[in-house]
Design brief:
Number of strands: 11
Shape: elongated
Distance between the termini: 23 Å
Helix content: 40-55%
Strand order of the largest sheet: 3-2-1-4-7-5-8
Radius of gyration: 27 Å
Amino acid sequence: MRTDSSPGTLPAREHLPAGDAGTPVLDVVIPVYNEEKDLPPCVRRLHEHLARTFPYAFRITIADNASTDTTPLVAARLAAEIPEVGTVRLEQKGRGRALRTVWSASDAPVLAYMDVDLSTDLNALLPLVAPLISGHSDLAIGSRLARASRVVRGPKREFVSRAYNLILRGSLQARFSDAQCGFKAIRRDVAQVLLPLVEDTGWFFDTELLVLAERAGLRIHEVPVDWVDDPDSTVHIVRTATEDLKGVWRVGKALATGSLPLDRLTRPFGDDPRDRELTGVPHGLARQLVGFCVVGGLSTLFYLVLYSAFRQVAGPQTANALALLVSAVANTAANRRLTFGVRGRGGAVRHQAQGLVVFGIGLALTSGSLAALTAAGDSPAHSTELAVLIAANLAATVLRFLLFRAWVFPDRTQTGPAPTAPVPTAAHPGPAPTATHPAPAPYAWPHQATTRLHAAETTSATTRPRPACPHSTDPGDTR
């Protein structure tokens, strides 16, 4: 998992300008591997559909993934025949590698890709990219699992797809419904920030991109699609499923350890209504109260279970102290991440130390209540002990929230106004480059020109003015 810094924060989303005639707003990438037969009808059909229905200038880019047949020659002929088609040759295989190479170099503000077999109905293309053009969303995906989708495919692929998405939901808490559909789009300014964080170069690439985008708080738009399975697909299900599971483990580990700098991308847009000032209400108070109450309720149940367990082998004071100590550590960790949005391992030890001080206050309140109860009666019932502890914990909870908010996790972002990122314009479509991550040069698309592209690997590109086509299947592909 890459942990290098992002190129910069994202500007506020805005409707993309129409631009000058001939300047592409959309770049549709078609990754292909040995698709000499399917490529021509795919490109011609896609080009005809875009020319007839898409209101902006567009480009179709054929990304040849080291094909060993005549696919490169076919792509070159299509580029020579159709002005809006270009082709890029990569000497290494991998769908993720192809998308990273083309998207990193493209000058179009909206980037998309689709499968070369055109399994997805092209009528979903405009609904897919419209929210990105309008500034409503950051990424868009086609979903075959939405209720409104109409899908024709075999039971084996249906089972694999649904099982994979259940794994993503259970292990990575993903909320998008279909990670594998080869029909996705992203804004270029978002891609410039997210691509350096994505490690995979194969089929797990777009799943990793979606998980990181969702964890960073970016908006993902889903479009129900009509989809017909390709009976000639050469997807290798077992191999791809194995690689995907390895990717899930790697990303889950990186998210759990906080090694990804996703905090730099969280709520990056100035148009987030949660960032607006509310008269008389401290910043983020309502959301923090809800999160604290949820965590507090779960912590209280955890504490009572621990107290009941420890009470079987120890006295009330000892059982209370042990239960409160264990639940306090868990409570501080949960509030740190969920309530106050602190990510990464920086300051975690200090926060736990401060949480233990807060724990000491709670211990004093609950121990004092137990002592008073014991003084009032020789052997109070267990249910009475629990009732007294609940009341004492409620009092300690109010004080704990105030101390967490003001001392343990203070909102340091309100000490001064946050710098605002420049709004993208036609002349400056994305965030400014930094010394560590220079912005990639846009495509030059000269007539029949041949260039060399570099994106973590050396590739050669034969290009021509504008777009290409959906992505192809690899003999090792499982989708």
